[in-house]
Here is the input.
Amino acid sequence: MKKENFGSQWGFILAAAGSAVGLGNIWRFPYLCGQHGGLSFILVYLLILFLICNPLMVAEISIGRTSKSNCVDAYRIIGESVGLKHLRLWSFFGGWFAVIGVTLCLSFYFLVAGWVLYYFLEAMSGKLLQIEQSQLAAEFEQLTKSFSIQLICGWIFLFTTTLIVIAGVKKGIERAGLYLMPILFAIFILLCLRSTTLDGAEKGTSFLLTLQPQYLGWTENGFNFKLLSETFTAALGQAFISLSLGFGALLVYGSYFSPKENMFKAVRHIEFFDTLAALLSAVIIIPAIFSAGMSASSGPGLTFISLPHVFQHLSGGHFWALIFYLLLILATVTSTISIFEVLTNLLMNKLNMQRYRAAIVVMFIAGFCFTLVTLSFSGALDIKIWGRDLFTLADWLVSTYTAAIVSLTMALFVGYKAMKPIIHNIRRSAHVSSAFTRYFLVTLRYIAPLGLSILLIMAIFS
Ligand code: PHE
Here is the structure.
């Protein structure tokens, strides 16, 4: 089968940034920021980005680019080239766990994507702005109880994603990134300007700029490790989801990335866009929430319950609500494409399927899982595992286990076993200084495994 490639370096950067920037940035980051002390959370997040995620991201993209293969066989191909044993084990933890993670991710991501579409339509019809303030929470709850509306909205997203993926890497995925990302950032800036100039927004801005040491463990009664570890695990889990790290998506995009293009430049840009999108989202949402006299720590409902309240009190609220939910839709599509592509690429590679056939099979697999999750979440079907509905279960498994296990495998694989071919591959397109090699080695061998082990151990015991 002919190997597909991105047409240019910017094609790759924008597609990968499109994968990264999604609900994770706009929906998840601001509410976690609100719950974990604003600036304290941001600082821990940035530190994690530099010490754990940056080297892992270079590693994941490089594994794809070196092997030019799918997320499962990549480990075998590179492993064979360095005479590694237990290849199946590496493929199992690095590859098949990514496949599990990405399937779980698909099954609940389309549900949240459906909510976004529903709120967009409500904003368009003007209904969103007419709902009584006290009814906003009830409205959201009603949506989560209605399996039919959630299924219809989610399936619309699923069809759209399938069509883009069928169009291929250059015509579908690359073009979507190239057109949608600039629009996305233009909307971001517009919303930021509006939000920070609202009456009373300063309280939100100062919340984001003031360090609250208790979230880093420094309380009046001395050091509290539990508080610090809560901030740390929330930030690390968020970083994985936000950067699409540990799901095989970067690996697959990396396999389409020409070996001649500069890897460091690409990674720098993807991280820059992703972090900027997360910070801008916090700057859009938190000051607006404060200006409406509401609390920023209200959790996942922030985007769907608190924010509509803000739009109701804004002059031109109708317009801003439309723009905001449109932003969410665009960001969501560029992310679902990449989650979808991991499985499509696997089927094309492993079973020699044509792209459109593979994409349709993935659509049915994703559609089946998503439908099951929706039925369980809405209560239409009484399926619970370990006391959790399937939505909560999938979200929990993905944010605490699968991405962390895949990332730990990648860190050990590149750090201890495959450093040579990976560095060799990076060298083909960029100058690799000895300082970078040292940083890469130390972070992958020691710092990332330590951080990831803490996350996994805490998750198991909590
Ligand atoms: N990074 C995306 C977001 O922030 C989610 C995602 C996860 C995309 C895993 C691809 C793979 O919303």
In short: The radius of gyration is 21 Å. Residues 19-20, 22-25, 105, 241-242, 244, 247, 249, 335, 338-339 surround phenylalanine (CB under 6 Å).
